TrEMBL record:
The keyword Membrane applies. The keyword Zinc-finger does not apply. This is C4-dicarboxylate transport sensor protein DctB. SUPFAM superfamilies: ATPase domain of HSP90 chaperone/DNA topoisomerase II/histidine kinase, Homodimeric domain of signal transducing histidine kinase, PYP-like sensor domain (PAS domain). It catalyses: ATP + protein L-histidine = ADP + protein N-phospho-L-histidine. Residues 295-510 form the Histidine kinase domain. Gene3D superfamilies: 1.10.287.130, Histidine kinase-like ATPase, C-terminal domain, PAS domain. It is found in: Cell inner membrane. It comes from Neoroseomonas lacus.
Length: 514
């Protein structure tokens, strides 16, 4: 694939002696004939003038080759012929006006040679710079678009009456000068011909992004960056990161360079990461359910046993010689109530582990804490952990996903009970909730366990970091991510040997519960 040709390419390629600049081999006939003619006129004719000054033309012709060696040879030959003609015609003993004229001729030849050499040096540096630019432009894996914005500043004046129409009009004034091969690949074009021209031929960004870019240019910013969708040849869009560089205000050059990075893979990676995080969160909830299976069995077993007991009692009242229908009705009522309680417990556990979309709703803090405690109360009792609740009255509501916030509290309480499992000292767990300023709610889960080692605290919320051999190392990481997704923060305070407190700060909802 070849990059598009531009006027700048033609100009720069004209500096390349290997292709376009004539070598001395192409110029030696006219240069040699001119040199011979000047020499013969100088030595054979009685013209009283600085004829040798015409050798300057020979030096200038030699400079067209672009080679310093050619210029030095031409200047050297001209100087030698000038001196020889003067010596042959006047000799070195005669000093007069011819001597002055020959010095003027020699000075002109020398000055012309120096100027040509300086020009060749500057042209060579420019050529090398142009080659470097062209090599970077063509070989870059980043898409590059070169545009001419010189017509923009002269066309802008005063506040526009119709901003959208003005933006579209100004966009039409921008000229796309060149596009590198990497940009062509991104766009799906085989040639730059369909793109070169006005910006209307190249739907790079939306009108909104272009308007923001135009504002940055008119403010005099040095660059502008944005994420945008660019149009490909097949009509599909391509997500890209744009980095646009502008010339300084005082620079008459209106060249604007747009560097384009294809972010398709990054966006796909972000989506894959989000899916992986959702899967990990689901796995962590399932793992938490496994750890709480004994508590779940106990919770469900209680209403089921009550149903059996009430059913047996009802049968006994029915089998009497004179059935007591009032007692039978009470037994059936208790059966219905216990059945509904069991159904609520099962529904709560299913919601806890169900991989369902996030459902933001107004939540009562006291209810949230109570429902979370019910999930772990049996397990805490089994390991002889005394649970204290301290929920301040009149707390404002929270807005969040009930299941996810329960997951945070359950995970923190289970971690606390496991941390205290091996100690003989009293095991106390305290969950408290109160206001933290006017617009925040603070929920604290603290224990009297051994605490966390100081070297482990900085890594405590990192994924896959755990202090327990059987732990997954994902619970606290997910808890912090969930808290931040709700606009809150999860922190920890621990003193080794004195216990640990996890502090969950959440924003209060603007709308109170009815």
């Amino acid at each position: 694939m070849q990059s598009s040709g531009t006027a700048k390419d033609e100009w720069s390629s004209g500096l390349r002696p290997s292709h376009h600049a004539p070598r001395l081999g192409h110029l030696w006939i006219p240069a040699g004939l001119l040199t011979l003619a000047i020499f013969l006129v100088d030595i054979l004719t009685p013209i009283d003038g600085a004829v040798a000054v015409l050798y300057v033309v020979v030096v200038l012709i030699s400079g067209r080759s672009g080679r310093r060696r050619d210029t030095l040879i031409a200047a050297g030959v001209a100087i030698l012929l000038t001196i020889y003609a003067y010596a042959d015609t006047h000799g070195f003993r005669h000093i007069g006006s011819p001597t002055l004229r020959v010095f003027v001729s020699l000075a002109a030849i020398a000055i012309a040679g120096v100027l040509v050499l300086q020009g060749q040096t500057a042209a060579g540096a420019l050529l090398r710079s142009e080659r470097r630019y062209r090599r970077m432009f063509d070989a870059s894996r980043i898409g590059i678009v070169e545009e001419d914005w010189r017509a923009i500043r002269s066309a802008v004046g005063g506040a526009p009456q119709d901003r959208d129409a003005t933006v579209r009009r100004l966009r039409g004034l921008i000229r796309i000068v060149d596009v590198n091969p990497a940009m062509l690949v991104m766009l799906g074009w085989d040639t730059a011909a369909p793109i070169i021209g006005t910006a209307h031929n190249f739907l790079m960004v939306s009108e909104r992004i272009f308007a923001e870019t135009l504002d940055a240019y008119l403010r005099g910013d040095a660059f502008f960056e944005a994420e945008a969708e660019i149009m490909r040849a097949n009509g599909n869009t391509l997500p890209a990161l744009l980095s646009i560089t502008f010339p300084p205000r005082e620079d008459p050059d209106g060249t604007v360079l747009i560097f384009v990075v294809d972010t398709t893979e990054r966006r796909q990676a972000q989506h894959a990461l989000l899916r992986a995080q959702a899967e990990l969160a689901h796995a962590a909830r399932t793992a938490t359910l496994g750890e709480l299976s004994a508590s779940i069995a106990h919770e469900v077993n209680q209403p089921l046993m009550a149903v059996v007991t009430s059913g047996e009692a009802g049968l006994r009242w029915l089998r009497r010689d004179e059935p007591d229908l009032a007692e039978v009705e009470q037994s059936i009522t208790r059966i219905v109530a216990e059945g509904r309680r069991a159904s609520q417990i099962v529904a709560r556990i299913r919601s806890f582990v169900k991989k369902a979309p996030v459902q933001m709703e107004l939540l009562d803090v006291a209810t949230l804490v109570e429902d979370s405690v019910l999930l772990v109360e049996s397990e805490l009792s089994t390991v002889h952990v005394v649970l204290d609740r301290a929920v301040a009255p009149g707390l404002p509501a929270l807005r969040g996903d009930r299941i996810q916030l329960q997951q945070i509290l359950v995970n923190l309480m289970v971690n606390a009970s496991q941390a205290m499992a091996a100690q003989s000292a009293p095991r106390r767990l305290r969950i408290a909730a109160h206001r933290d300023g006017e617009d925040r709610i603070l929920i604290t889960v603290g224990d009297t366990g051994p605490g966390i080692a100081p070297e482990d605290l900085p890594r405590l919320f990192e994924p896959f970091f755990t202090t327990r051999q059987e732990g997954l190392g994902m619970g606290l990481a997910i808890c912090r991510t969930t808290a931040e997704a709700h606009g809150g923060r999860l922190a920890v305070e621990s003193c080794q040997g004195e216990g640990t407190a996890f502090i969950l700060r959440l924003p209060a909802a603007e709308t109170e519960l009815a």
